[in-house]
Amino acid sequence: TIMGDSSGGGLSAAFAQYLAANDLPQPENLILISPWVDVSMSGKYDDVEKDPMSGVEGLREMGRAWAGDLDLKDYKVSPLFGDVSKFPKTTIFVGTHEQIYHDVTNFYNKLKDNDINVELNIGEEMNHVYPVYPLVPESKEAFNHIVERILDSQ
Predict the structure, then answer these.
(1) CB under 8 Å to 68, separation ≥6 — which residues?
(2) pTM of whole model > 0.90?
(3) Which end is more exposed in the chain, N or C (fewer Cβ atoms within 10 Å of the end residue's Cβ)?
(4) Vertex 63, ends 49 and 37: CA angle to 5°?
C-alpha cells in the first residue's frame, strides 16, 4: 500500500504514474487523503466553502515552489494531468469544504473513466485531511475504512 495526504497524496499518485510509465509493478492499494493533484490550481474554486487550512493564492505560490523547473501541469507534480490508465485499486478521501474538492473529484472521475477500481469517500462539510484529525468524529470512520482497505490486501 502506498498512502499519502495532501501534497503527500499528490506525490503518491504521481509515483503510481511514474511506476506505470516505467513498467514497474504497482502497489495493491493506493490510498489518497485530500490529495493535491493540481499544483497549478487551474480549476474552479469560487463555489467551495472557505477552507481554514489553505487559500487558493497561497496554494498557487506553494505549487510554483514545489514544481521548481517543471511545468505546473507535469504529472510529477500535478497527477491530475497524467496517465492514470494503469493505476492500482485506489481509495480517495476528500472533504466538501476543501479548496481542492473539485480537483479531487475530477481526478476520481478520470480514474473512473479509465476503468480503475476507485472509491471516493466524501466528508460532508469536512475540511482538508479530515481523516487524520482524531477529535473529528468523522475521522474515526475514515480511519477504520483505511485500515480495512489495507488489511483486505494482505
Answers:
(1) none
(2) yes
(3) C
(4) 65
Q: Which residues contact 132 (CB under 8 A, 6 or more apart)?
A: 5, 33, 139
What is the distance, to the nearest Å, from the Cα of residue 83 to the centroid of all Cα atoms in its chain?
Answer: 15
Query: Which three-class secondary structure state does DSSP give residue 88?
Result: coil
16: CATH: 3.40.50.1820
Number of folded domains that form the chain: 1
Domain that holds residue 29: 2-152
Nearest to 78 by CA among 48, 52, 100, 46: 100
Beta bridge partners of 29: 89
* Distance, CA of 69 to CA of 2 (rounded, Å): 26
Confidence grade of residue 46 (pLDDT, cut at 50, 70, 90): confident
- pLDDT for position 30: 98
Angle at 74 between CA 68 and CA 75, to 5 degrees: 120
Task: Give DSSP secondary structure letters for 64-86.
Answer: HHHHTTS-TT-TTT-GGGS--TT
Give the integer Cα–Cα distance in Å for 69 and 112.
Answer: 31
H-run or E-run covering 137: helix 137-152
